[in-house]
Structures are given as structure tokens and as C-alpha cells.
């Protein structure tokens, strides 16, 4: 149970004064649903207001605070702006300009002849000075309420930075004083304030780096402590040792031998499975490095030892694809493989459930439908999770509750920077497939400006007339799935006018059977070009598709571009990736595209992505159920992670774990930063 002391922070955001339906909407867009979300919505910059006694052209471009008196009102008659002519104490003139709104509003705010303290950005308009939409206009007796430094917050339409600052101040007001969880020596060394004081300081002065660092440290510390508790719990659990006999693997007819990295990883997994302590291993492999084969070997070891194995995939397309791949790879072996997704109903589903319960099904592949209450296994010994970043620590623990502590192997084709591996998977052992199977061709990547789109379509025509197939990925459109879809439909329609029936379209709104039909037609070569939103990002496998065009590539993150590019280069033919960029490129986008052109190494790309983008954005963690980091930037993560890991270990090993006084405080921190998956294991403690 969450400690009562935290209840004021975990109340709905509407508990803050002044939040009605109009304000709830922009807050919802920003993901601010509870008081704590507002408290942790930190400013990204600040405005310094320069106090001035008189107007000066040299201040143009600065935000100033000055006493002015209105001498004339000019109404815009509903169409133009309202203008207020005002003077300072020395008689210098300035225009205060208001667009939209009722002209009477400016008169009420600035009555003629009455001095007001006005602050806003001073600008030159021709030869005149003006302030457009002053941010504060106050009677002189209220001047103390205007801060000289004001925080700038990430916003959405319908809320201002000033309003956000007021809400943040209320949220901080509700934050309790708490016992200290940071080791005293560390606190003194960094001169860190207490947690609540740090939170108040960052909102009051966003340039306060010491307070920021303290908050980031707390979040990282809670994260590392939770992972250690999960790991510690895993070590205490007793599962069963699965010792493979080699019988099934010896019968396997593979057309090629394993790479050194695959063989090493299979040995590591075999060693883990032979222990009674359940395996908890992360398998990282770049696109095309052969993870599925390693998973197949692990599942065979489990079946050889008389247990059942389950493979969990994030989407139906992928689950069915894994099913087909494993059936092909393991054809001729005396084992029963089945598939189960949310789409399977009626008799088919009943038969599968009976087969699992009776033990006639050896390996089950499916989406998370395979872990619903109704699904019972006779003897589940190994769970393999594909595309690990879609499943958080809490989900990993739920899976383990299904058997008698089954072994767990989680795989990701998204290379993860070492810092983040430690931050997100610190409770796991890690294997890396860092070499490619022979025959995989590097993919040639080119960047092309969108004004050469006609040339791209001509190249596509040549490619498909030679019997090739291609993907065409439509842009990621911020905040709106609808416009993603609209872009994909429009592109498919324009390509159909030239290529007719050879163009197919796939997107996330399609129903499962519909998606499968489009994918199988493409895999069978009945269509030549698959126009897609990013649904094809993970795992889709069509060896004859050797060209991918990614429109507006500058809108994608590096990890995602690398994933998309990995859809080609799966056969022996030479593959190409065309990144179509917009006309105006920022520095970050330029750096990303240059790196994509330069290298196919996913691990190098991931490290750069972290540097360029930030941890919360990386790997889509914001959308994935993994908590991510809200207060710690990538730089802070790199700097503070080793310290936090050592401190968490110290707490567990020396300071009495969660039982001592510091441990009790740390328990509260786990709940505060929503890393309570760790606490869940310590109910008895």
C-alpha cells in the first residue's frame, strides 16, 4: 500500500484550485493527470525580467518590468489590434498592443491616467517601441507578486507558463516533508537540499542545477533500488532446473551453422536453465542478428527437459510470423507448436487451452492473451518475451507468476545504450548478439530532399519492374494518429494512380484479419509496394523486399529509423534505404540522418540517439508502459547512475535493507517515483 503521507500528491489533478474542464484538457494532453505529474513537470527554461525606470531603445528584445501610465486607447473595432499609448515617468512613449479579445478589456486593465507596473518583451516597430500582449499589468500595490525570474514550462494549447507555474506552486505546497533516504555522506558531498526543498527550488528558479541534480538522483536511486530488489527476490525463488538432453537439437536440420555470438548465447542460456534459480536474461540483438533462432534453441532445451515453453510477441502480426517461422525451423521434430492471440475464439481457442492444460502442446506462441487468467499450463518452464521494451518490470513479474517461477528470456531488436541497459534492466543478466549471420548484406542508405520525390517514384518504378518489392513508410505526425493515417492513405492513392493494384496499404487502425491478409499478399509477392504507417517497425520479414522509402525521415528518432531500415536486407539481394527529408532541417535531424547514412551498427546508433534525444523519448518508452525518467536527463543519468547503483547496494547490504530508518524512507521513495514493483516483492518485509 502507498504510504498515506503521499496521498495529497497522488490525488487527481482537479484537486488543485482553479482547474475546471477548460484547463483539464491541455493538462490531459501533457499527461498531467495527478498532482504529482504537475509537481514533476519541471520548467525547461526561464525569463529574466529587467526592472527599468525609463524606456530605452537599447532594451529592445529584452523582457522588462516598468511603471507606465495609459494616455490614449485606440480600439481595433473587432478586426485590428487594440492599442494603448502609454508613457513612463520621463514621458517616453510606448504602445501596448492586444490582438483579439474585447477592446474594453484593455481599458479595464489600463485605465487612463493611472500608473500600472507592466512587464513584457520590448520590441521596435519601425521607429516606435511596443510591447505585444504584456504578460503582467498590475496596480502598484500588487507589484511584489511579479517575480524577476519566471519559469518557462513545456505547454500545450490552452495553458500559459504563468498558469502552469501557479499550479506547480500548489502541487509543491501539497508535497510533504519526508525522512531522508540519501546516504548522509553523499548528501553533504554534493550539498544537496532535502527532497521537498529541491522541488520548490527548481520551480522557483529553473537555473538551480544543484536542486535539479538532487531530484534526478532521487529518481535514479529509486529505480536502481527497485531493480535490485527484483533481482534479490529472483535469487531467492526456487524454480526447477531444466537440463536439456540435446536430443531435439541434434535432430534439427539447419541450412547454416550458428554464428559465434549465437553459439555463445545459447551456452549462456543453457547454463542458466540448468539452475534451480529462475533465469532472468536480456538478449539484445541488432536487426537481423538471429535472435529468433536463439529463442528456438532455448525453447527446445525446455521441451527436452519435459517442460512447456511460451513465446510472447507484442502484436498479432508478429505472433503469427513467429509461429510460421518456428514451424518451418522445427519442422520434422516430434513437438507440438500452437498459436493463441486475442482473435482466436470458439472451438479453436478451446482446443488450444485443453492442449496446454493436458501438456500435449509443447510450445505456445501468442500475444499477451497467453497470460490471461483462463490460460493454464500443465508445466510452464520457460517464457520468452519478444520486443522487451513493450513490457515493463511489473509485466515481467506477472509473467513469472504464471508457472512455478518459470525461467524468463527477454529479447529486443532495439539496441539499448549501456547506461539505459543498467537503468531499465539492472535486474537481468545481459547477452548481446554483436555479429551478423553470413550472407547479410549491409544496407545502403541515402538521404534525399522531398523536392526530389518524383525521382524517388521513378526509382521505385524501375525497382518493381525488375521484380523487386518495397516498403513506403509515411511520416509520423505529432499528436495525431488520424493525420498519420491520412498521409498514408493519400500516398497510397497517389502511387495507385501510377502502379494500380500493385500498391497495398497497411495501418494500425485495421482489424487483425485484414492486416494479416495484406501482409500475406505482400509476403507472397502478389503486391509490389506496401505503403505503411509505422506498424511495420518491428519484426516483419519479407526477404524479397529490398527497398524502403521513409518519408519525412527527419521526424523520426534514430532508434526508430534503424528499426524501419531493418525491414530490408533480409535476403541475399542488395538492399537500399531512401530517407526523404523535409526542406528545413534542424541540427539534431541533420546529425541523425548523417549517422544513418554512415553506419548500420545499431549499438552505435543507440548511444547517439540517447545523446541527441533523451532517455524518456528513447525506444518509445513514453508510450510503452516502462516508467522512463521524468526528472533525470541523459547526461544526469550517465553521471549519477553508478553512484545511485552503489548507494542502493549499500542500503541493501549494510544499512539494514528496507527495515532500517533509511530503508523505511527509501520505501516511501519507491512509491513516490512509482517504482513500487520492487516493494511488491517485499510485502512480507
In round numbers, the mean pLDDT is 85
Instruction: Give start-end ranges of low-pLDDT stretches.
Output: 615-627
Instruction: Name the strands of the widest sheet in spatial order.
Output: 12-13-11-14-15-10-16
Number of helices: 24
Major beta sheet summary = 7 strands, parallel
Per the principal axes of the C-alpha atoms, what is the gross shape? globular
Class by alpha and beta content: alpha/beta
- Strand percentage lies at 15-25%
Record field, number of beta strands:
22
Distance separating the two termini:
13 Å
Q: Helix share of residues?
A: 25-40%
What would you note in describing this structure?
The chain is built from 24 helices and 22 strands. The protein has 685 residues and is an alpha/beta fold. The chain has a 7-stranded parallel beta sheet, with helices on both faces. A 6-stranded parallel beta sheet has the order 17-22-21-18-20-19, sandwiched between helices. The protein has a 5-stranded mixed beta barrel with strand order 3-4-5-7-6. Helix 6 (195-204) crosses helix 7 (209-236), helix 7 packs across helix 22 and helix 9 packs parallel to helix 10.
Amino acid at each position: 500500500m502507498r504510504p498515506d503521507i503521499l496521498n495529497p500528491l497522488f490525488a487527481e489533478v482537479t484537486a488543485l484550485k482553479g482547474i475546471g474542464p477548460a484547463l483539464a484538457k491541455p493538462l490531459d494532453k501533457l499527461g498531467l493527470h495527478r498532482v504529482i505529474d504537475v509537481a514533476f513537470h519541471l520548467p525547461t527554461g526561464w525569463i529574466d525580467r529587467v526592472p527599468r525606470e525609463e524606456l530605452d531603445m537599447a532594451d529592445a528584445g529584452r523582457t522588462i518590468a516598468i511603471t507606465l501610465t495609459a494616455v490614449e486607447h485606440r480600439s481595433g473595432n473587432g478586426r485590428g489590434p487594440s492599442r494603448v499609448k502609454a508613457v513612463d515617468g520621463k514621458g517616453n512613449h510606448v504602445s501596448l498592443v492586444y490582438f483579439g479579445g474585447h477592446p474594453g478589456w484593455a481599458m479595464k486593465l489600463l485605465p487612463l491616467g493611472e500608473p500600472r507596473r507592466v512587464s513584457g518583451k520590448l520590441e521596435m516597430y519601425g521607429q516606435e517601441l511596443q510591447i505585444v500582449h504584456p504578460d503582467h499589468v498590475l496596480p502598484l500595490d500588487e507589484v511584489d507578486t511579479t517575480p524577476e525570474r519566471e519559469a518557462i514550462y513545456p505547454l500545450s494549447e490552452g495553458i500559459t507558463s504563468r498558469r502552469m507555474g501557479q499550479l506547480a506552486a500548489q502541487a509543491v505546497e501539497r508535497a510533504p516533508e519526508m525522512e531522508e533516504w540519501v546516504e548522509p555522506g553523499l548528501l553533504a558531498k554534493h550539498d544537496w537540499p532535502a527532497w521537498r526543498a529541491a522541488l520548490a527550488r527548481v520551480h522557483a528558479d529553473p537555473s538551480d542545477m544543484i536542486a535539479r541534480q538532487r531530484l534526478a538522483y532521487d529518481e535514479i536511486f529509486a529505480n536502481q533500488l527497485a531493480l535490485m530488489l527484483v533481482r534479490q527476490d529472483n535469487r531467492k525463488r526456487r524454480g526447477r532446473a531444466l537440463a536439456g538432453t540435446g536430443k531435439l537439437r541434434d535432430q534439427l536440420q539447419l541450412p547454416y551453422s550458428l554464428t559465434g555470438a549465437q553459439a555463445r548465447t545459447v551456452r549462456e542460456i543453457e547454463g542458466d536453465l540448468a539452475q534451480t534459480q529462475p533465469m532472468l536474461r536480456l538478449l539484445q540483438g541488432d536487426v537481423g542478428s538471429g535472435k529468433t533462432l536463439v529463442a528456438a534453441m532455448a525453447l527446445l532445451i525446455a521441451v527436452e527437459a519435459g517442460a512447456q515453453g511460451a513465446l510472447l510477441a507484442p502484436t498479432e502480426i508478429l505472433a503469427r510470423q513467429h509461429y510460421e517461422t518456428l514451424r518451418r525451423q522445427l519442422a520434422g521434430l516430434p513437438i507440438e507448436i500452437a498459436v493463441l492471440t486475442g482473435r482466436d475464439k470458439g472451438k479453436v481457442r478451446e482446443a488450444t487451452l485443453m492442449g496446454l492444460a493436458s501438456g500435449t502442446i509443447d510450445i505456445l506462441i501468442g500475444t499477451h492473451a497467453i497470460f490471461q487468467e483462463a490460460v493454464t499450463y500443465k508445466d510452464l518452464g520457460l517464457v520468452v518475451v519478444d520486443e522487451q521494451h513493450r513490457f515493463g518490470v511489473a509485466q515481467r513479474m506477472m509473467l513469472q507468476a504464471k508457472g512455478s517461477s518459470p525461467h524468463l528470456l527477454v529479447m529486443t531488436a532495439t539496441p539499448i545504450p549501456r547506461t539505459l541497459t543498467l537503468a531499465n534492466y539492472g535486474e537481468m543478466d545481459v547477452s548481446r548478439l554483436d555479429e551478423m549471420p553470413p550472407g547479410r548484406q549491409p544496407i545502403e542508405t541515402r538521404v534525399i530532399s522531398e523536392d526530389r520525390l518524383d525521382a524517388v517514384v521513378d526509382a521505385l518504378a524501375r525497382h518493381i519492374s525488375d521484380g523487386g518489392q518495397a516498403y513506403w513508410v509515411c511520416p509520423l505526425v505529432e499528436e495525431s494518429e488520424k493525420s498519420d493515417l491520412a498521409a498514408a492513405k493519400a500516398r497510397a492513392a497517389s502511387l495507385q494512380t501510377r502502379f494500380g493494384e500493385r500498391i497495398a496499404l497497411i495501418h494500425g487502425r485495421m482489424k487483425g484479419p485484414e492486416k494479416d491478409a495484406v501482409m500475406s499478399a505482400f509476403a507472397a509477392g502478389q503486391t509490389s509496394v506496401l505503403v505503411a504507417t509505422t506498424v511495420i517497425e518491428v519484426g516483419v520479414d519479407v526477404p524479397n523486399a529490398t527497398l524502403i522509402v521513409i518519408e519525412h525521415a527527419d521526424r523520426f528518432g534514430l532508434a526508430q529509423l534503424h528499426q524501419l531500415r531493418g525491414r530490408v536486407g533480409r535476403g541475399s539481394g542488395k538492399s537500399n534505404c531512401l530517407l526523404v527529408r523535409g526542406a528545413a532541417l534542424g541540427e539534431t535531424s541533420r546529425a541523425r540522418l548523417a549517422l544513418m547514412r554512415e553506419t548500420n551498427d545499431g549499438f552505435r546508433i543507440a548511444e547517439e540517439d540517447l545523446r541527441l534525444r533523451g532517455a524518456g523519448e528513447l525506444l518509445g518508452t513514453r508510450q510503452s508502459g516502462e516508467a522512463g525518467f521524468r526528472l533525470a536527463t541523459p547526461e544526469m543519468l550517465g553521471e549519477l547512475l553508478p553512484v545511485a547503483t552503489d548507494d542502493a547496494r549499500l542500503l541493501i547490504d549494510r544499512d539494514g535493507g528496507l527495515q532500517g530508518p533509511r530503508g523505511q524512507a527509501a520505501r516511501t521513495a519507491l512509491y513516490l517515483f512509482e517504482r513500487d514493483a520492487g516493494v511488491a516483492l517485499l510485502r512480507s518485509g
